[in-house]
Structure formats: C-alpha cells, structure tokens
Amino acid sequence: MPNRLATESSPYLLQHQNNPVDWYPWGAEALARSKAEEKPIFLSIGYSACHWCHVMEHESFESVGIANELNRLFVCIKVDREERPDLDQIYMNAVQLMTGRGGWPMSVFLTPDLTPFYGGTYWPPMARMGMPGFLDVIRAVADAWQNRRDLAMQQAGELTEHLKQIGANDSADDPLEVELLEHASSQLQQAFDAKYGGFGRAPKFPHSLDLQVLLRVWKRNQDPGLLHMVAHTLDQMARGGIYDHLAGGFARYSVDERWLVPHFEKMLYDNALLTSAYLEAYQATANPQFA
C-alpha cells in the first residue's frame, strides 16, 4: 500500500511511495507528530539520479524488518534535495561536522525540535567493509535517545552552535586577500597527482573550480608548473573513461585514480562547471582540444 509520498510531485519522493517505511514529506504533520510523541526524526535526503540512494532504498527501505524498526522508533521524513536545497545545506553541514565527510543519501537523526544529533550517509543493512549496519545504527541511536537523552541533547546543542558559527563565517564581510589564492594553490600542489592528473586518490572527482583557481594564480605569477597541473588534468580526463566519448559529457567522478572507470551518473552542474574550466584552459594554452 502506498505511503504518504504517493501524493507528492517530486520524482525522488515518488520513487519511495511503495516502501514499507512510513515516510512523511517534510511538513507540519510529521513535525507535529515528532513533538507530540517525543520521538526523534529520521531524515533521509537524496535525489532521483543518486546511485547510492537507490542502493540504500533497495537494501534497507524496501526491507520489512528494517522498516518496522524505523516506524517503531522514529518519525521518518524523506526530502528531495533538489526541492529543498536549504534543508540539504543545513544538514549536510551537520553531517560533515560529525563525520568529516558528506554525500547522498544523507541520513540524519534529529530531535523533535529539528536539531541534528547523529548522522552519516550510506549505511549497508548489515555491517560490512568497515561500515556499521543500518539496523545496528537505528537501534543504537534509539537506545541513546531513550536511555541517554541528556547526552544526545547536549551533543545536538553543541552541533547547533558550530552550525551557527559556520553561518556567521559565511556572512563575514572581511576583505578578500590574495593570500587566500596563494594558500589554496599551495594546498592543491601538495594534493596533485603528477602521473594521472587531478587531486588525491580514488575515487577521483573533476574539481573544476580548483582548476580555475590555479588558472587565476598562474595568471598572476606566470608559474608554468600551475598551468601544467591544469592542462595535464584536463587532458587526462578528456582521454579517460570519465568522459563519454560517444554521447559527450563527463561522469560525476572516476572510480579509479586513472580516470578510466566512470561512476555512471552525469550531473548537469558538473558539466556546466567543466565547460568553463575547459574554456579558460583554452584561453590560457590555445590548445584546440580544450576548445
């Protein structure tokens, strides 16, 4: 039997309308129930093209056993990040503060007043590959809420203060200094993969904005090493499997460090940013391949 998401217009929410999880869309009904029953909220945020969102749905949200535990212990809310980027940004900041990383599906546990106190991204249904099982996470969070609520509320309060500081920093009106560019350039040089281009190890993302930062620093100081980093990265990407040589466009990231095996998902915003990066690289190098 369809759940409450059946009346929504979002393709992502409609994908979950037949889950046994008693999903609510974000709204007054779910928030009021959480407060009335003093139940924490399990908030799941994703989008329709997200591969791991589909994996977690199939493994966990379609599981009657896991759904029963979620329904018994939490008020469950599903959000499409493309409909509510504001909520996505707030809780993504929280997850990154808690775990040091972010991504989708985003899984966050909230107090009835919407303060996050625990979160993560994808969890498998049972523990594997060094990750806890989602069922274990559900029960551990519920136990903390029922038996150590003061500690959970304290953690939620501390996290909220950190989030407020992030908001205050984002709105700071201090003048931008050229040293910011130079510091970013230094950090990127340390992370640069001299063999295959790009930054860091697998999985490897395009980082088009980082490449544009390097171009701006190169324009100022004419350091040929910076221009090489940009050109080598864009060349390796264009030759690799992250680029769709048949249909055009770039995948969201490469599974390996050599840009050979794409994650089969193309995002419009990634390709829009890469268009600017290749254009600026052409302006800097006159390489017709970049044009």
List the topology elements:
Layout: H1 11-14, E1 23-25, H2 28-37, E2 41-46, H3 51-61, H4 64-73, E3 75-80, H5 85-99, E4 106-110, E5 116-120, H6 134-147, H7 149-170, H8 178-191, H9 208-221, H10 224-239, H11 268-285
Parallel strand pairs: 1-3, 2-3
Antiparallel strand pairs: 2-4, 4-5
Query: What share of the residues does DSSP label as strand, in percent?
Result: 5-15%
Q: How many beta-strand runs?
A: 5
Assembly context of the chains: single chain
Order of helices and strands: HEHEHHEHEEHHHHHH
Shape, per Cα inertia axes: elongated
Helix content: 40-55%
What are the salient characteristics of this protein?
9% strand, alpha/beta, 291 residues, elongated, single chain, 5 strands, 11 helices, five-stranded mixed sheet, Glutaredoxin, 2 domains
